Amino acid sequence: MQIAPSVFAADLGDLHAAMRLCEQGGAAMAHLDVMDGHFVPNLTFGPPVIEALVARSQLPVDIHLMVEDPDRLLDLYLALKPRWVSVHYEAATHLDRTVAAIRAAGSGPGVALNPATPVEVLHDILPALDFVLVMSVNPGFSGQGFVPYALDKVRRLRRLIEERGLPVRIEIDGGVTAANAAEIRDAGVDVAVSGSAIFAADEPIEALRRLCRIGAERAS
User: Fold this and answer.
1) 195 is in which domain, residue-wise?
2) Active site residue 173
3) Is 33 an annotated catalytic residue?
4) Can you give the CATH number for the domain in which 174 is found?
5) Which of 30, 34, 74, 94 lies at 20 to 30 Å from 10 by C-alpha?
6) What is the pLDDT of residues 9-59, one digit of tens each?
């Protein structure tokens, strides 16, 4: 299991330092939450901020669009050439078209699911995806506790993927800590997003490295 630190939980006054920390700690990607103040209450990064971060880092970025009507903003973020882009099932009106646009731009398309949205809604779109982002907190705020039934969703999703022989990866976001990382890994998660457990730690780089070590261990 790889680790993608959520930069939203870092010191927003020094985002370049946050990206350097991600690189030094062994992160696979930097996870960037884009919030519009409508789909979720908060506002976060716009394209100019992300463009500046991408220009100063070798780390791939994973853009999570927590926005209403993602099609309206999609081209602005696809122009930044992120490795992954996810849109919310709950927000995308024409999901198939949105996923196709992400892939046509050269990024890996993903669909994010809020905690109460079952994974089975993705049955038809699943072959078109690179990954599914399972939210293990309600989106919009960092520092929330892990929603326990998210692991059952991951297991069900893993079965759907394996039964159909699809190369779709599973990402999870919210409440990931060193205390639950092994259980999350063993449930079948490929990429875990972690924010406060890294950036609010006394030694953030070591906290990230510890999560990376747990992720790299063989599932029990």
Assistant:
1) 2-216
2) yes
3) yes
4) 3.20.20.70
5) 74
6) 999 889 999 999 999 999 999 999 998 878 888 778 889 999 999 888 999
